[in-house]
Amino acid sequence: MKIPSPSAAEREDLALANRMLAQQGVLDGYGHVSARCLDVPECYLIGDRTPPGNVRANNIHPWTLDDEPAGHTHPTYTERFIHGQIYRARPDVGGIVHCHAPELIPYGAAGIPLRPIYHMAGFQGEEPVPVFEIRDEFGPDTDMLIRTMPQGQSLARSLGDRAIVLMRGHGATIAASSVRQAVYFALYAVMNARILTQTLLLGGKPTYINANEGRNVASVMRDASRTWDYLAAQVAD
Ligand SMILES: [Zn+2]
Fold it and tell me: 227 pLDDT band (50/70/90 cuts)?
C-alpha cells in the first residue's frame, strides 16, 4: 500500500479541528477528529494520544483502514476502530468526530428521540438519530469503548447512511464529507440537543425541521466556511 504524504494544510486543518471542538466544549481530554487522506483514500489522519485541545500538526499521523499505522510507529487513541471502519463502510465520508458531549447523552440513554429543532442541525435528517447499543452484539460486560475492528464495524452499521449516530451512555460519532464539515456537524448537533432539552423542559411541543428544510439548509452550509473561519481565529497559535 502507498504511504500517504499529507500536506501541511491537511495536517493544519485537522489540528485546528481538534482545538476548535475542544474550545467549544464538544471535546474535552477525550474524543478525537480524523480526516481521510487526500492522496491515499485508503488511509486517514488522526492525532497521537495528545488531548484534542493540545493537538498540533506534528501530532498527526496516517493510519490504514485496518486501523494500523501507515509507515510510522506513533500511537493513537484506543477507539481508532471507529474511524477506520466508518471510512471503509462509507466512501463518501471525509471527516469524522467522536465525542462524549454530555448534551447528547440523554438521547442515547433514555428513549427520547433526537431530531432537529434548530435549522443549523437540519443535516441530521428528519428521522430520529440512530442509537448504537454495544450490548446488542457484544454483551453486557464491555467497558463501552470501541476497542476492536468488529466493534467499529458494528458502529458503522448503526450509523448507516446517516451523519450522526448516538452511542448509548457513551457519546456520539459524526461523519461528514470533510473534516471542516464534520466540525460544523458536531458543533450544531450539540447545540441542537441543548435547545431540544430546554424546549422539552419548558413543556413545549417541538416543531421539528422537516426533510426538505434540512436538505436545503445542509446544501447552503456545505463548506461551513464562516463557522470555520470564526473558530479558527479563536484557536490560532
Ligand atoms: Zn469514546
Answer: confident
Catalytic one of 10, 42, 79, 127: 79
**pTM (2 d.p.):** 0.97
Q: Could you confirm whether 79 is annotated as catalytic?
A: yes
Average pLDDT of every residue of the chain: 95
C-alpha 204 – ligand 1 centre gap (Å):
32
Which CATH number goes with the domain that contains 196?
Answer: 3.40.225.10
- The CA distance from 44 to 28, in Å, is 22
Question: Distance from the CA of 36 to the center of ligand 1, in angstroms?
Answer: 19
32 CA → ligand 1 middle, Å: 8
Task: Kindly state whether residue 39 falls inside one of the protein's structural domains.
Answer: yes
Ligand 1 mean position, distance from CA 42 (Å): 23
Total number of domains in the chain: 1
| Nearest alpha carbon to residue 20 among 235, 237, 172 | 235
Pure H helices in 90-148: 105-109, 135-138
pLDDT confidence of residue 224 = 65
Report whether 53 contacts 22 (CB < 8 A): yes
C-alpha cell at 165: 449516530
196-226 pLDDT, tens per residue? 999 999 999 999 999 999 888 877 666 667 8
C-alpha of residue 84 to centroid of ligand 1, in Å: 15
Residue 102 lies in a domain: yes
pLDDT reported for residue 1 = 80
